[in-house]
Amino acid sequence: MDFIGFCIYWAALVLAMIIIANFIAPKKLGYKQNLDKMEPFIAEVFRVHCGYTVLTMLGMLLTCVFYHTELRSNEGMGFGFNLFMAVFWGSRFLIQIFFYDREIKKRYPIFNIIFLTAFGYLGAFFTYITLT
Question: What residues does each domain of the chain span?
């Protein structure tokens, strides 16, 4: 396996870890207590968005595993997916730095560093593969 192939499989592993984190975060961050304070419809929208976010990441993971040859070639749909991933994770990296509440990041510094590293890797790698 070449370096790019390894990095694509590594991206799948990183995505798997982010998906798992999305099942740990609700308890850690008190989703239920916070959602109980919201209007029911807004809480439903939040839950649906969370579910679709996890489903989207699962699709990304499966694409990395089953279509790594297309991603490596960076042609056609492979290019489109690589570009999407570069923009998606590159912007998510910036959101982690500039948008999220500093107090939450200070309360959970290890998680902040882990997420920043994961988003940075995905954004940087898919930007690299898109541009080469």
Answer: 3-131
